[in-house]
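Q: Is it fine to ask for two folds in a single conversation?
A: Yes, each is treated on its own. Send the first.
Q: Here.
A: Result:
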Amino acid sequence: MTAPASAGATAGRRVRSRLVLTVVGLVALASLALSSLAYVLVARSLEAEVLDRALDDARFNIEVLAAERLDEVVRPGDIEASGLADDFQRRGVAVYVDLGGEPGEDFVSGLDVVTVPAAVSAELTRAVAEGRLAAERVDLEGVPHLVAAARRPPAGPDFYFATDVSDTERALAQLRLVLLAASLVLLLLGLLAGRRGARLAGSLADSVAELTAARERERRFVADVSHELRTPVTALVQEADELAARVDDLPPAARRVVELLDGDVRRLRDLVEELLELSRLDSADHTGDLEVDELDVGRFLAAIAARRAPQAAVEVPEGLRVRSDRRRLERIVTNLVDNAREHADAVGLTVTARTEDTTLIIEVADLGPGVADDELERIFDRFSKADTARGRGGSGLGLAIVRANARVLGAEVAARNREGGGLAVTVRVPVEVVAEP
């Protein structure tokens, strides 16, 4: 009794640990992805805004102010003399103007660095020489700047406007800290939620493990009981046969008792055999035990019908041949035919077969009382007798054996009520089609 409980507790601990790790991992990944996405979007937006503003300002300063104030040829001192330098100073514009002479003759405003052309990349210098407006991020004396540069057409000079972007970078650094803190808070909440959910899931896992262990005990019990009953039931059948053979020698009152005894003993034998079959099907995975043979579907079904219900109509396209496990397929069809014979007196019993691609579809239908719609799925449960109108005789295991064998074949089985009355059970079996009609 302690082993299943210990197994259940172990299963619960495993589920709890896995669930906590899973939840924490998912929260960590989600928070990291969301934080990274938010940072990238904000950073790109801010950088794009700063870049657009720097390019617009540079374009205005060159194409409007410089074009109005400066002559075509600019010499040292012309920028101060034109008043352009005062405009730059009032507006707080940091600019380096390369006049094309000695570095000491260039104009510098708002910058401590007098060698901006030497600090920028060769790509930016080449873009300026080609007459294009371009920009790049540069560290000037350890301070991050965005340098927007262009040449005043047609021959210069070259203007380098520097925008301090240290505030933007500090804002992005603060954003990184905020997002990191938010991620840690989410991770903590995820850990708390994971632990709470893990306790619930662990309890559920314990219950499932206990139920599984109980079901396994029940299966073993049924198998053991069926095995132990097989010998005495076999002896009872033999003794009932001996009595039945001498029934004519018995008084009339005793004959009825012997007939009832003979029928009951045979039903008991069938029940034990069916329980043993179900226990064998439950004991292991039998998909590797399939014995595949080639079947002439028409002859195969006709032979079953002739043995179990000679009045049944068999409708199969001539020449249909498939490869499947004969023994299990025969067990399925036999049980379905027996079910229709026992519960519907085989009224209107038809057995049909056809193929769709690589699926063999077999249907066994009758014109009996049918089954309530809400009970159609339950009729495949063990010991199920959903409708008393169809409940005459039988152990309630026949359709359960059908479903168990269908599962081994990888087949699907379903029941439906026919429009004109009666029950139809359809089995869809994956097969290898050898020959089609």
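Q: Second one now.
A: Result:
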Amino acid sequence: MSNQDQTPSSAEGRVIVATPEQLAAVTFNSDGLVPAIAQCAETGKILMMAWMNSESLSMTFAEGRMVYWSRSRQELWRKGDTSGDRQFVREAHYDCDGDTLLFVVEQEGRGACHTGEFTCFYRSFGSE
């Protein structure tokens, strides 16, 4: 059983108890950020990519709700506070290099994209 399987749930999201070794494996860039991908638990679709700093990662783990770092506003951004389109953590993963995070989330509301689309990846290259 993985460490994630043993963690409690918050009101709607899953609290993640990461070990010090797991946290040390996360590689932040020179700006103190790491890319975080949100994937829909229901459909498997990639919803969005945003940035996290160590504080937003800790808050996400503690709250069971996605918290990102806004590069444009230079502040923490709890997904859905203004739009109502909240994301609740179901699983959390890090890649082999520790430089990208993947969160499987339950997406609430209209979706993840600020344009009103369910996913930010609604456009395709090439003709269909």
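Q: Anything structural to flag on that second result?
A: Two points. Residues 6 and 17 are 9 Å apart (CA to CA). The longest helix spans residues 54-63.
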